[in-house]
Amino acid sequence: MEGKTLFESKHCLSLKCVLFLFYGGLGCIYPFLQSNMAYKGFDYNEIYSISIIIPVVALLGPLLFALLVDKWATSSAFAYGKRIRI
């Protein structure tokens, strides 16, 4: 996509909007997560563990899911595009 601006490539515009809003909302909530967990009665070690697990799952989850989807989509050559769109 050489020379195209953000709004000229409209095939991914809805995905870009959804991801922008999702990560924007996540960025607003995440700083208050630890204080909320402390208010709810979580132990310091539990808060620490959850704060470590959330970013690891957020990084590794899409990578593992992409491998799973690729394997699932290529199992049948005739249904390749149909399953990915779902």
From TrEMBL:
Its main location: membrane. Pfam families: MFS_1_like (PF12832). Transmembrane segments: none annotated. It is found in: Membrane. It is a multi-pass membrane protein. It comes from the Eukaryota. Residues 13-75 form the Major facilitator superfamily associated domain. One of its GO terms (cellular component) is membrane. Keywords: Membrane, Transmembrane, Transmembrane helix. Belongs to the major facilitator superfamily. MFSD6 family. PANTHER family: FI19426P1, MAJOR FACILITATOR SUPERFAMILY DOMAIN-CONTAINING PROTEIN 6-LIKE. This is Major facilitator superfamily associated domain-containing protein.
